[in-house]
TrEMBL record, chain B:
<keyword id="KW-0786">Thiamine pyrophosphate</keyword>
<dbReference type="InterPro" id="IPR009014">
    <property type="entry name" value="Transketo_C/PFOR_II"/>
</dbReference>
<dbReference type="InterPro" id="IPR033248">
    <property type="entry name" value="Transketolase_C"/>
</dbReference>
<keyword id="KW-0670">Pyruvate</keyword>
<dbReference type="Pfam" id="PF02780">
    <property type="entry name" value="Transketolase_C"/>
</dbReference>
<dbReference type="InterPro" id="IPR029061">
    <property type="entry name" value="THDP-binding"/>
</dbReference>
<protein>
    <submittedName>
        <fullName>Candidate pyruvate dehydrogenase E1 component, beta subunit</fullName>
    </submittedName>
</protein>
<dbReference type="Pfam" id="PF02779">
    <property type="entry name" value="Transket_pyr"/>
</dbReference>
<dbReference type="GO" id="GO:0016491">
    <property type="term" value="F:oxidoreductase activity"/>
</dbReference>
<dbReference type="InterPro" id="IPR005475">
    <property type="entry name" value="Transketolase-like_Pyr-bd"/>
</dbReference>
<feature type="domain" description="Transketolase-like pyrimidine-binding">
    <location>
        <begin position="4"/>
        <end position="178"/>
    </location>
</feature>
<keyword id="KW-0560">Oxidoreductase</keyword>
Amino acid sequence: MARIRAFENAAEIASQGGVSAYGSSAGAGARVRGPLHLSTGQEAVPAGVCAHLRTDDYLTSTHRGHGHTLAKGADLARMMAELFGKASGSNAGKGGSMHIADFSVGMLGANGVVAAGLPIAVGAAHAQKLQGRDAITACFFGDGAINRGPFLESLNWAQVYGLPLLFVCEDNRWSATTASGPMTAGEGASARADSLGIAGEQVDGNDVLAVDEAAGRLVREVRARRQPRLLHAITYRVKGHVSVDAAAYRDPRELQQALQADPLARARSRFLAQGGDAAVLDAIDREAQEEVARALAAADAAPWPAPEAAFTDVQTTGAGLWR
Amino acid sequence: MAVMSYAQAAALALAHAMEADPRVVVLGEDIGRGGIFGQYQGLQQRFGTDRVIDTPISEATILGAGVGMALAGLRPVVEMRVVDFALCAMDEIVNQAAKNRFMFGGQGRVPLVMRMPVGIWDSSAAQHSQSLESWFAHVPGLVVVCPATPQDNYSLLRAALDCGDPVVYLEHKTLWGLQGEVDVQAREQLGSARTVRPGRHLTLVSWSRQVHACAQACEALAAQGIAAELIDLRSIWPWDRAAVLASCARTGHLLVVHEAVQAAGFGAEIAAAAAEATGCRVRRLGAPRIPVGYSPVLEAQARIQAADIAAAARGMLEQTR
Ligand SMILES: Cc1ncc(C[n+]2csc(CCOP(=O)(O)OP(=O)(O)O)c2C)c(N)n1
């Protein structure tokens, strides 16, 4: 959680200084350009879930994927370089924040299209089944995503074929500038999973131990029984939808209340109440800050991609005919 | 006449259409607060939540519901946020909206305006920067409109609402703030081009944001004694064959410029039609066939700049001299 928070705080600062183009992206001049979707306040969900995933398990993510990717074990410095658009980035500068990916740790990509990661996770889990592997797939999606067709299609498919797949609805209450509650009929993700016979569970997504406990149980079930499960984690989007969004449409009291439940602060006070040593936590924070500082310096110093790289990895057959 | 932005012109066009016709309704994600670019600003306060409808993130159903509303007598405007997400509703656009009138023997019509912004959007990478107008031009039944100025965003949106058939309405993601004068009395016919500047040495045809790059290129060319005629097509289906062919017949040279990938782009259609009809020399300038990269270095490879346009025009004329 500390690493995710430190990474995103630094990325947010690095995204400032540009001129924003009508609301969605930090403009030219910023060191981190383009839309930056921060998961500040939501760190307990990826931390609690990914703690139970192995490197050979797969993960798909949303447009808000820094936390998922870091928690899955991705290299922080390569991620920062990617946000800077540098050649040494995890995606060679081609994807940026919204498409952050690290296949070397099974992280199959963040996605710019809401709900698009669900069917991909279904395919990855289906492959694991066909290949007779004991690895599983986890799939993060937002509360807004459950109103798109791919959500229903993916849950149905996973259940019909008996796939080792953990669906994780990271419910932060908002979808861009719209509160998702009034846009969603019924009880939401776990109720919809129930209707398809997929056991679902709700958890306080700001309580890292609660997430850890529930996710641990569900992951063990998915792994052992080769069946899908769903975790509905209730959390809160502390920042605006993208870094340049001040979220003026939101009642400030709602944010104030949510800040009381900050997952890092809660974990800290619990640890101390149980007799833990504050110096241990301070050391974790300091280490995260130092790691991020090194990553920022490396990203700054790294070279830009060669312009010709725009033409690589497009396709093999017939590539390069149309420049 | 008032000066306003491209986004404000669209909101005003909708407001006027909604005042004039109670059948006009708008539906889409985040539009109640004005839309992510302010292109629906003030409409929900003014016309209420029954006529400016905030929807779930459900592109297929937004589009399909628009088709159903249109068949049931409304004149819906549906918001797809960016063209990239309209792909989540491709069946509803191509198999349903476009085919309904024909397939059922003219029993129903689909007066539906589908707004889906196109174009490269700073460092927004491969899934938020596409220009897919030729995909829609290829589908019988669809009208495809690409406004480049605040005036046209007002007039053409009004015309699209009056059209009576499904219209794919493609605003450009970087033009929202562009300011210009808007005459709300002006009426336009879909399918009529606008001659941005006259010239006699070659014809430049473009649409959407690239019209502005072409205008810059024309300045540079003029400084070198080359008089290029610039035509803003404004809609690519129907496209103004008469205006383009007449110009090509006069200049003998056609350069079509678009932001979309050049291969299988709409420039090929125009170039072929002009060459067939007038025997003029033709050339196209579009993006290479690559996804748009995130890093500014990579993104630049997909951009068409005024200097590229001027160089292509000069190169073309030098070949014939
Ligand atoms: C298919 C599609 N529709 C719309 C969008 C624009 N969009 C990006 S994120 C977002 C909100 C998503 O809400 P949610 O799934 O709850 O995730 P959160 O942003 O809250 O993490 C929207 C509407 C998109 N990227 N893809």
